Amino acid sequence: MMDHPTLVETERAMREHVESLGLDFEAALAVSSVYRAANAVRSYAWNDVLRPYDLTWTGFVVMWVVWIFDGLETRRAAEAAAISKATLTGVVKTLEARGWMRKVGRADDRRLVEIHLTDQGRELMQELYPRFNAIEAKVVGRLSRGDIGAMTSSLREIVITIEETQD
Predict the structure, then answer these.
(1) The Cα angle at residue 71 between residues 165 and 42, in degrees rounded to 5
(2) Residue 101 vs residues 50, 67, 73, 92: alpha-carbon distances, Å
(3) Ordered domains of the chain (ranges, CATH)
(4) What pLDDT does residue 8 have?
């Protein structure tokens, strides 16, 4: 058994196992490639940027969505980070303990809670995000600007299709 199959080995094995089923192999290959690329970027970013801060990928994503929206109600933060509200609760607790995030009760509805970055959390994001963006630039570095635009457009169409399916 292989320790870490390459992309080509994975695609070959996939073709051998599903080709006889009469499925849309190109669609399966496309979605598999999206998943594999996302995991590769996530692992690379975690190792190079987030690990030195003992910050998980999920913690970074939560901080990022709260940062770009300048605070969010917890339900919206969980949705934006694509995690459950229960997962968000644990992540926020950890980020609060590190002094990077704070919870604020809403005056208009005490059942709702917003989360905001502290000054220290904003400083961390201003330090981390340029390093994270350098990785983003590096991983698409072999693509032309046109290819990057086409890829971005295609991936947005996938997201829009899913969003419309869920409505």
Answers:
(1) 60
(2) 17, 10, 13, 7
(3) 7-166 (1.10.10.10)
(4) 82
